[in-house]
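S1.2 Input.
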Amino acid sequence: MTKQKIEIGIIGGPFDKITTILEEFEPGNQDFIYSYEMMGVKERQVQNVDTYREVKVKVPARLHPSVLDMNRFNLNRPGGGGLGFAVEIFFHATVKAIKEPEIRVSGERQLITEHFGHAFKQLLGFSGGFEIELMDHKRRHVGLGSSIGSMCAVILGMNEVLGRPFHGWELRRIMGFLACEESPMGSEYLLPAFETGIGAMAGVNGGWIVASDDLTMVYRVPLPDTKAIIFIPDVESLEDEYTGKETSAESEAELLLRRARFLDSMQAGAKAELVLLDMIPAMIRGDMTKIGDALFDISYLGSKRAECEQHGAFGTPIYSYINTFRGIGAEIAGMSSVGPTIFALTKSQETYDKIMSYLKDQGVADSRIIETVVDNMGGTITENGVEKSFMNDNWLKG
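S1.3 Output.
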């Protein structure tokens, strides 16, 4: 099958007009494995290992309430800053180093898994290979970080069985630059993806996170004893497993590179000010309601507004739920990524029960509601029956 390209005209500022090309590629294509220098990572070598270890990795899903400025990222330039948090919906990977120079994959997201296996071998000069089985959470392309969570689980496992050649912040950069997802055009191909780093930060660290540009984590706090109601509304724009469509890469890319960028060119400063002057002080005080107040204002600004509006009626279906959840008493409510997933976070059992009753009264199917809690532990690695957290101070570097 001939590989395809998607050409998208970018409009950022009033005088900004260029073209970005999303080009299909096979897993392991060297043109899509960037150099250490480009990624800003010190070169490492692991040609072989003494022990061919096997580990099990568990990574929480991320929700991504907002990017700060979409004009700060492109396919070969991850960043843009943003907000994110982790929830107890998990990705599971079993990773084993093997002597044979092969990448053997099973389970789900096999193209992504294979590409990152080849990337690790090439970057490290590893003479052996990997056996990798990955299971994702099966809620794809609705704002629950299915692609980056899969990458995170796989890359943490490979890094572990090779003796942790990379620090956490370096893994974050590798994921950011090599981010990809399955092509909607050719079933055996991948497409490069846009990445802010939030998925990797939340997947490893858990909690509520503020990130700046260049994949830099600014601040992270736990949200202990916080219940999460995650709701996938039935909106006209929905392209996910309910309709049998595996990816909405083309429509998402067009949104991110056109209207969202244009609005951020005018309002990214206001979003950044809300984060710096309102949200971060609230995080330091542990004031979830004030965190939610700042996010509520951000939800009507810049690229977040564009993301909400794409789901019809100038965002009315999305905003009506966010406003209702906040009115009921949820400390934090918003839409994740390009949506349509909406979430409500609360420490109050009474508020939680009221939101659930509201959704039932609206006739929302159980299959569209996920009841869980905020994950504050982050990614874990289990070896020989012993589970340990991957999080360490080096993850904050860079």
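S1.4 Remarks. Residues 259-285 form the longest helix (27 residues).
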